[in-house]
Amino acid sequence: MKQHDTLILTASCESRLGTVDAVTGYLYEQQCYVADMQTFDDARAGYFFIRVEFRRPEQGEFNEAAFRDGFAVRAQKYAMDWELSERSHRPNVVIMVSKFDHCLNDLLYRYRTGQLAIEIPAIISNHPDLQRLADWHHIPYYHLPITPDTKAEQEAQLWRIVQESNAELVVLARYMQVLSPDLCNKLAGRAINIHHSLLPGFKGAQPYHQAYAKGVKLVGATAHYINNELDEGPIITQGVQAVDHSHYPEELVAKGRDIECVTLARAIQYHIEKRVFMYRGKTVVLGS
Amino acid sequence: MKQHDTLILTASCESRLGTVDAVTGYLYEQQCYVADMQTFDDARAGYFFIRVEFRRPEQGEFNEAAFRDGFAVRAQKYAMDWELSERSHRPNVVIMVSKFDHCLNDLLYRYRTGQLAIEIPAIISNHPDLQRLADWHHIPYYHLPITPDTKAEQEAQLWRIVQESNAELVVLARYMQVLSPDLCNKLAGRAINIHHSLLPGFKGAQPYHQAYAKGVKLVGATAHYINNELDEGPIITQGVQAVDHSHYPEELVAKGRDIECVTLARAIQYHIEKRVFMYRGKTVVLGS
Amino acid sequence: MKQHDTLILTASCESRLGTVDAVTGYLYEQQCYVADMQTFDDARAGYFFIRVEFRRPEQGEFNEAAFRDGFAVRAQKYAMDWELSERSHRPNVVIMVSKFDHCLNDLLYRYRTGQLAIEIPAIISNHPDLQRLADWHHIPYYHLPITPDTKAEQEAQLWRIVQESNAELVVLARYMQVLSPDLCNKLAGRAINIHHSLLPGFKGAQPYHQAYAKGVKLVGATAHYINNELDEGPIITQGVQAVDHSHYPEELVAKGRDIECVTLARAIQYHIEKRVFMYRGKTVVLGS
Amino acid sequence: MKQHDTLILTASCESRLGTVDAVTGYLYEQQCYVADMQTFDDARAGYFFIRVEFRRPEQGEFNEAAFRDGFAVRAQKYAMDWELSERSHRPNVVIMVSKFDHCLNDLLYRYRTGQLAIEIPAIISNHPDLQRLADWHHIPYYHLPITPDTKAEQEAQLWRIVQESNAELVVLARYMQVLSPDLCNKLAGRAINIHHSLLPGFKGAQPYHQAYAKGVKLVGATAHYINNELDEGPIITQGVQAVDHSHYPEELVAKGRDIECVTLARAIQYHIEKRVFMYRGKTVVLGS
């Protein structure tokens, strides 16, 4: 019921009287049934966000192109950014990894069992280690080694694969390389990284070692869109794990794995369900 | 901004095309600005719920009576149950206690500091112990002792106070008496109890002792509307606390206090913000 | 450092003056270094528990048999139940599953990556579905179908595999069959089940459906030793997950998977690290 | 049982064979019953920590001075730092506040009900606002206003009160002044501050506003010993609270209050139960 014949409409614009009605009035006019809806109105910034899941009319044919044309007129009045997609659409997601496989393994399990409604046209790694895992899931594995000298070239290859895969999303599932500003720009808004700390604490390399040195009693993971500043992109979701003095860095690494996996998977879920709006360096996540 | 001149409209009815538009279309027509909105459509039961916070028109006068009349026509079409209230309304809440004071103390603090936007016209107890705490907050304290013989009479007094206080809500903040079916009926939908277990586990008396006997590794608290069956009413919210083998019953009692306080306060907050819909022995809580 | 040459000594007995010294004094006498130690003294029941990780003497040879003989004398004085094992010992664990694979997949990942220091000599299932997953990990998969008529015979086969595998532990990783009292007895203290509810709430079949019907706001998972009463065995650890009205039973099922996996893995970890003492229908878990 | 006639012995020293036996052997020799014990051996730093709760001998008289003398000899052999105290000892705790009263209110409740086994000889504030709350609990309230010019003098007065109160602990319960390095030094190891962020994230002023600007999805609180660097002292415990895009700074402030209270109270509990060892800029917390 929830997915069959269901579409998702998201929109955002400056706050003005009538934005909600522009969406809901149109849906009613088109005889579309609203199955789920959330709004957020940022009273500080004067910005409005809406996400609606709706079902096509039960009778008659639904002409999506005509629906779009009709909505575009309404949206234009409010200068809305908007997007329409099928609930059942399975976006292509390219996964990037290095040697750590826990996030990859978790994502592949969710992919294989349908918990994550995605296609994975490619796994890209700067190491050969995780080839066998990819093979078992029948997913092409691209080993693109990287050195300081070959970084530009490697990123070019990487970008080509992303494009040829029609990837709507790139997931850095513990990919241990810093992307160039150019590639960050190209991937803006459609690349999610998992960082193994509660950002903004412990940016950069070896956050568990930093956490150990500092003696914190909670560690965590942060899933965020990448941008040009390392570990500074808009945060989508965060997870947390209690620790204590007895955890050496290696044990923090081990302790943190589960929360990294769950946090990254949740961020991807939010993204593909069109719940996440990037906005002023932050995110609005509707209906999470 | 959030509270000033803001109203809350809630409605529920059988699922039908047009229910959303009946609300949002009307608000737009009345030039009311939608500040916050959530819906839930129960696809199994075919039932629809909506909660909207909206602001009066910035220009012109807002005639609430006329607004109500106008909406009533639309609501009738869908046989909606609906309610309109001011965001800034502070409902009268009668608190009932016995001897344990942690929940009362917590509620009084939130009341005193404005975190809970309520008035407390009366505190009722079957014991005299908490009089001084009430006095300090300048709240009338009614000591209504109870024995098997006087239960009916005591409940009659209690009910009179609730009525004379114009109480919109009664909170059983660790009131250690079982209410009669008659009183339960009278209070249906407007009396919240805190039970110190993760219901449906450990109903009835001494849940922490039951938890100790069972050796559970998590204890918790459940805030629920009361109904005719002990500890069976619709659950509003629950909280949880990790424990271990070293906690004897008295220590579970101590450990559980914080989570009881927080859970009860949260339930009251949801209720007075009109987020909770009772429905089929359960609750829908919008925008929590 | 933590595992190399490290042994684990656990003991329990009635509370008496001298029990701690019986252990620590002996370790010192044997020039063994105490690396980690916890005790619990149940003041209600008058029972004492201790777990020590210690390192062999740095100089000289360590004769484990002689160590055992020496300790046995001391332990006898207090009628201690005790056990000595290598920290690096990898016990044989037989995993039983039906069709749901999330716990199995998770355990196999932790096994494959060394996070769970176990060997898995056999996976037993009443369905053929998870053969391929077992194959990929090079683990023998025994498909033992079961019908009311063949239950006794199936359990006999199952028991044979457990014995031939020298299994120290049997894990019911969502095995959807009730074991016979006889098999429960045979497996007493060495079979861990994961039940997908916060026991004692929602025992028996379809706990997520029960949770949906009840409208709880928290679901969870309970890892416990099996005993003769269904879902009544001593609880090792529990996990919890917040849910709301929008989660239908299927979604509770999906939501609960992660917490089931993590909770079961944690219980196994505690068990193999010799942290868990079964006692009066409950558990003491030291140093968790 | 737990508190009556129970003492707490804590000790730490460089890791060496025999440290455990030095403690447990002596307790046995003195016919003292070990009721609770934890150790931690920091394998990286080569440092050992132990905390024992024990009961005096049931027969005969217990001479504490003699006990101390006897233990001092053993402790000296290992160059142990050690401390002996009564379980039932209620230390004097001076509380410092500014205008925010939630932590103070919470601590006073726990004090009044015996949940926190402390005496509060003085409440010190740079503002007069919380006098009435102190009065109700019959606790002397010292209003010590502060300006840039009078800071040194104010701190001198403050220090005098701390000394005259025989305060074993000073709690900065949202005291919104930075202490001078000199006062920090004087209070080293016996002053606990609550900072309303998950340190090391969001040090300094207005952490909730910083959290809002950054768009984090979790906020929290950190209880730590103060030292000379602002918000950098050894962390005792931390708490966390989920938030989302809809929380403006004022709402984060409101959301965070409960977790601040609970986190601070827990840190004080650990401290007065002698569970916390400061060590290399971090803490070891035994048996928490």
UniProtKB/TrEMBL annotation, chains A, B, C, D:
Its EC number is 3.5.1.10. The active site is at D231. The lineage of its organism: Bacteria, Pseudomonadati, Pseudomonadota, Gammaproteobacteria, Aeromonadales. It comes from the Bacteria. The gene is purU. Pathway: Purine metabolism; IMP biosynthesis via de novo pathway; formate from 10-formyl-5,6,7,8-tetrahydrofolate: step 1/1. SUPFAM superfamilies: ACT-like, Formyltransferase. It catalyses: (6R)-10-formyltetrahydrofolate + H2O = (6S)-5,6,7,8-tetrahydrofolate + formate + H(+). The keyword Repeat does not apply. GO terms for molecular function: formyltetrahydrofolate deformylase activity. The keyword Repeat does not apply. Keywords: Hydrolase, One-carbon metabolism, Purine biosynthesis. Catalyzes the hydrolysis of 10-formyltetrahydrofolate (formyl-FH4) to formate and tetrahydrofolate (FH4). Transmembrane segments: none annotated. Belongs to the PurU family. It comes from Oceanimonas smirnovii. This is Formyltetrahydrofolate deformylase. Residues 92-267 form the Formyl transferase N-terminal domain.
